[in-house]
Structure formats: structure tokens, C-alpha cells
Amino acid sequence: MKSFILLITSLFILSSCSNEKVKIDETVKVNEENWEESATLVREVVVTDDGQIGDFIFHIGNNGRLGFGEYGPFIAGETQKYMWHFWDNKASLTKPFKVIGVSKETGEEIMVIKKPANSNLSPKTGPDNPHLVPSSMKLPTPGLWRLEVYFGEEIFGNVVVNVEDK
């Protein structure tokens, strides 16, 4: 039930941000030197059945065509659930999906997510709604991490996140 509420909330947040259509420049390249934490949308939501309030945080990718909602912050060494959102044609999103994490501090690269083609990609329910991919992610050390998103061997975009110490 909580997952459903968060999903609906995230869709509401994204659809209510603006009535304007924004044309996305599809020539945006991933800037591997940018280590600024990615933009986020934060909205206070009811997070428990007994009415407790918490923040829902949505991380926005570098190209405006991807992002993910978090069910909890990144804590070093701990697994957490995240829902990825993609705005693009389905054909480009049906290839194998992977996310590679790169640590700013050490340069370490790790495989964060790897899924086969068409794995867990939910259909869009309208022209402004995203394709969704549920996932779990764990990053091993605190600091800034760039999450590089690939469909097939082609990079789709990235999100830079701050991982907190335990």
C-alpha cells in the first residue's frame, strides 16, 4: 500500500510541477566532469498508515528524461528501494538496463543495477507519464556517486547523489 501511495504521489508531483511542455534537447551529452549533486523535488507526504509525515524526494537526471524517487536516503552499505522514471519512446527503453555507479572520491566503478531487456518496464498510461522501472540500489561508501544509466550499450543520462555515512 505504501509503495502505491508513493508511486501515485510521485506521479502527482511530476505532473503538477508545470503546465508547460518542455522540449528536451536530445543532443545533451553526459558531462563526466560534473560532480554537482543532481536537482531534487521534495514534497511532504503521509508515509505511514497512522498519518506520520515524511519527505518524498525525486532526483532529476542531467538530461530531464530520467529520474528516480527514493523510499529512503542513500546510506553507505545499505540497500534501499528506488523507482526509476523515464520519458522517452519505448523502443529505446526496451534494451538491457544497467546503472553503473562511479565514486567521485576513489574513481571506483561498480555495477549498481543490471536487468535484461524489457525487464520490469511498465507501460506509459498517457503521453506525459513516464515508463517506470522498480529497483533496489546499494552504494558501498559515503560521498558523491554518479549513477550512469544505460539502455543497451548507449548511455541514457546520469544522476549524481550524495551517499551518507552509517
Total of helices: 2
Low-pLDDT windows of residues: 1-31
Order of helices and strands: HEEEEHEEEEE
Q: How many runs of DSSP E, i.e. beta strands?
A: 9
Give the overall pLDDT as a whole number.
80
Q: Order of strands across the biggest sheet? A: 1-2-3-4-7
Q: Specify Rg, calculated over alpha carbons.
A: 15 Å
- Estimate the global geometry from the Cα principal axes: globular
What fraction of residues sit in β-strands? Answer: 35-45%
| Distance between the ends | 28 Å
Overall helicity: 10-25%
What is the structural class?
Answer: mainly beta
Largest sheet: 5 strands, antiparallel
Oligomer category = single chain
Task: Provide an overview of this structure.
It is globular, with a radius of gyration of 15 Å. Helix content is 11%, strand content 40%. It has 166 residues and is mainly beta.
Topology at a glance:
Layout: H1 2-16, E1 40-46, E2 53-60, E3 66-70, E4 80-86, H2 90-93, E5 97-103, E6 109-115, E7 131-137, E8 143-151, E9 154-163
Antiparallel strand pairs: 1-2, 2-3, 3-4, 4-7, 5-6, 5-8, 8-9
